[in-house]
Amino acid sequence: MESPGNEFSGNPEPGRPVPLDFALMSANEPLIGERFPVLSIGSNACPAQLRHKMDGLGVSSTVPMVKVRSTGIEVGVSAYVSPLGYVSASPFHTPGRTRDLFVTWLDAAQLEIVDSSEGVFTPGGEYDRVFLPADGFPVEMPSGEWLGGVYAYVHRYGVIHDGAGAPRPHPGERQLLTDLLSESRRLREWFGDTPEEFSSRARGDEQLCEKGTRLFRDEERTTLSGLEGLVPEAPSNIPYDDIHPANELPSGSFHAARTPDTYDQRGSGVVRISAGLAAALRHPSHVIVQNVQVPTARHERLGALANVVVAPEINREDRHTVQVDRSLRICVGVEPGEAVTVRPATLPKSKHRWQDVLFGKQSYVTCRIQDGDRASAEHEVCLLDALTLQLIGVSSGDAVVLEGFPDENGIVPVLELKAIQTSDEVQNRRTELHGGDMTSRYPSSLDALGTYPDLPWAFLDRRLWSGLGVEGQWLATVRIRCSRTYQLKKELREMVFLLGLAFIGVVTVLNSILWRITSLAILVLLVGVLVSMRLRSRLSQRARRIGGPIQRR
Questions:
Q1: CA–CA separation, 240 vs 35, rounded Å?
Q2: Distance spanning both ends of the chain, measured CA to CA
Q3: Rounded mean pLDDT of 352-371?
């Protein structure tokens, strides 16, 4: 990777390795999931050349580069003399052949520039961009991940053969030009006897380069690369997040995919599955999502509670993919394409479904559990920051409902606690202490799960951990929502006082008992409407388009 600096802000130990996404985020660059993996051949594997292409057009030259083991691709020689003064490289198909190459991770703007430099969208351009699928072209990352596919640039003029009809491997530019000149008298007449003369004469002379390119064909020195059948009508632009790894899924697990950006989560973390998978799971309303790849270390049950949505656009027979929204992926440290397990979970049945009608759908915030601070130890309270309290529509001292981790029967424990706003002192003290993996006293999500920034924190006494079923789970998460029953009582306490004052005024004005009763009924109805409007406004976080309803799915 071409580093934006030797150190990254937020890194507690300068010089130590950090997740690549953390480094990109610190450099204010697009993350890996938004980038395109390109198997780089020739100049595109040269950091200086990439920097030259990007800097010339004002685009960031921060490009991650990863050395990989690639099978089925060899570096050949394009049948083309470049006006830049060299004969460029181009891949060709070699089934079963394995070698080390580099994958560059280009963002959308960088990919557009490289496409343009290779003439991908130009009728007379030199290269096509193809997608090499994992089943024919395995690419192994240093982490052991097998990429689900990579992009590559394939020359439209084919490649130069070795004299026996097979594509010629690229031996390096100096050796290549020496060999090509020694094999063709006319090439020596036009370009000189040495690689230096070749480069000097070819550089900037487009007519001479065209003559050299035609000469390769006239002398029948070209052959096919074997990749022509992969050339699409139009290059695809599928980012890494949507290219699932080719690693075999562990038994009982699923590929984690992204939820659509336009999907309305309705204030809670969701997974979206096919109708077929929903039937196989017996149509659960909730599931617990867990990361298969996190090694075990006192957190075997680490997971995140999610609502289940059956997505009609997902193929009914797709029983290998689960769309997991971003907040849930952060909970368990999973990236799109990695393996997760899901199992049904059951929440206690609510006796207050009517509240959804009056006050709108519940809004949840998923929080990372932290060991209780000394000030709140042995108190049955939940410490939350000010923003989290505002998102769920409560004030410090109000009651909130916490939904924990399901037991072996899938039953989710639920606790109602008083929420207290935590202080900056508590937050800063814990920030200074936390770090390390799951075996640390205060583990860090960056170190243990590779996720940053983390979820909001909820400070709870250890006894409450047990009540929520998360004992022994470092970096465990819970869902938090307001207690609407508590909020209703709170609103009614205020309104009943005003109702009493209003009724006293009515009694003094009206002599008829019938009119007094009627007025009281109207006042009660008015109070009910006002309470409903106040609670719906404060507890429901819903967007509304001015001039018409916002489109929801």
A1: 6
A2: 40
A3: 76
Residues 553 and 264 sit within 8 Å (Cβ to Cβ): yes
Query: CA distances (Å), 458 to each of 417, 420, 430, 532, 542, in order?
Result: 12, 10, 12, 29, 24
Q: How far apart are CA 244 and CA 146, in angstroms?
A: 9
How many angstroms from the chain centroid is the CA of residue 261? Answer: 11
Pairwise CA distance, residues 535 & 316, whole Å? 39
Which of 416, 373, 367 is closest to 388 using CA atoms? 367
pLDDT score for 12: 46
pLDDT tens for residues 331-354?
Answer: 999 989 889 999 999 998 765 565
What DSSP designation does 7 have?
Answer: S
Euclidean distance between CA atoms 182 and 174, whole angstroms: 12
Distance CA 487, CA 477 (A): 24
Residues 6+ apart with CB under 8 A from 512: none
Token digits of residue 510: 């009206």
DSSP string, 98-124: EEEEEEEEE-HHHHHHHHHHTTTTSTT
Cβ proximity of 480 and 382 under 8 Å: yes
Least Cα distance to 472 among 401, 400, 405 occurs for 405
Contact 417, 464 (CB under 8 A): yes
- With tokens 């938090």, the residue in question is 480
Q: Are 162 and 220 in contact (CB under 8 A)?
A: no
What SS3 string covers 279-347?
A: HHCCCCCEEEEEECCCCCCCCCCCCEEEEEEECCCCCCCCCCEEEECHHHHHHHCCCCCCEEEEEEEEC
DSSP 161: B
For the entire predicted model, the pTM comes to 0.81
As a whole number of angstroms, the distance between CA 460 and CA 377 comes to: 8
Place of tokens 């306490």: 493
Under DSSP, the state recorded for 229 is G
User: What integer is the mean pLDDT of 480-498?
Assistant: 76
Helix (H) or strand (E) holding 199, with range, is helix 195-202
Q: Which residues contact 541 (CB under 8 A, 6 or more apart)?
A: 267, 363, 391, 393
Cβ distance 92 to 226 under 8 Å?
Answer: yes
| Per-residue pLDDT reduced to its tens digit, 92-135 | 999 999 999 999 999 999 999 999 988 898 888 889 999 999 99
Burial 468-484 (b: 16+ CB within 10 A, else e): bbbeebbbbbbbbbbbb
Q: Which two tokens stand for residue 341?
A: 């397990």
Would you say the C-alpha torsion 92, 95, 97, 99 has a positive or negative sign?
A: positive
Which two three-digit tokens encode residue 169? 């491997």
The predicted pLDDT at position 264 comes to: 75
Strands 270-273 and 304-310: parallel
Q: Which burial class, exposed, middle or buried, applies to 443 when counting CB atoms under 10 A from its CB (0-12, 13-18, 19+)?
A: buried
